[in-house]
Amino acid sequence: MSVEVENAPTAGEYIGHHLTHLQNKPMSGIIDFSVYNLDSIFWSALLGLVGAFLLWNAARKVTPGVPSRFQAAVEILFELVDNQSKAIIHNERSRALVAPLALTVFVWIFMMNAMDLLPVDLLPWIWGRIFEINGESAHHAFLRVVPTADLSTTLGLSTSVLLICIVYNIKIKGIGGWAHELFTAPFGAHPILWPINFLMQMIEFAAKTVSHGMRLFGNMYAGELVFMLIALMGGTAALSLPGILLPIGQIIAGTIWAIFHILIITLQAFIFMMLTLVYVGQAHDAH
Known about the structure:
This protein has 287 residues and is mainly alpha-helical. Helix content is 71%, strand content 0%.
């Protein structure tokens, strides 16, 4: 016995809907730089402010006695980042800026990743109700809430790291010293090798930037898809009485994947932070 659900979306339509961004206007082509993913901008900015507030609040409430659990957690995280920055960046003046930056990057990316742990349909459903109140159809109320599952966000973060590396290359080595390195490393200072050296340096910068962003995007995008597939189990159960056990399986599978995903979101934030420290540390090294 089955129950027909009128106008119910197919699995492909359901996933396609949840993978569609809230944008300022329809795209006019495959690549359109005038189109912005408003949901990614909103959630990344909001979570950045929340993360900054939490760190500020922890610093404001520091006590010399027995720390609270929250203060102890922040202190452990701070010591972890500080020890890693000391091992990679030996310039104390640079470390005074880079270590807090790395801590901010870790907290910010962790919070953006953690949005994946919310129920898949929760925030889009709330957003859809707002659209219905305004007379619009909820079907067209697109909203993606995991900024790091958006390639434009992760490449924007990795490009920012690239710019920081360029700044430190110029600051530590000077414009002349960095230009000399671009044309003489890694193969030597012979004039014939200058074009090859420069090309290799550009390829290295591009490869590090793209891989830095793609690694985070790929893991979070895959995790988002898995949560959607698990959510479809409940939808399948709603269409057929024999599928009554599927909601139980959905809860079990969702819980297992969420617990495992906590490790993924933490690990990806840590990897992005560590690569940021490594790339900035490489900017301090002379070839």
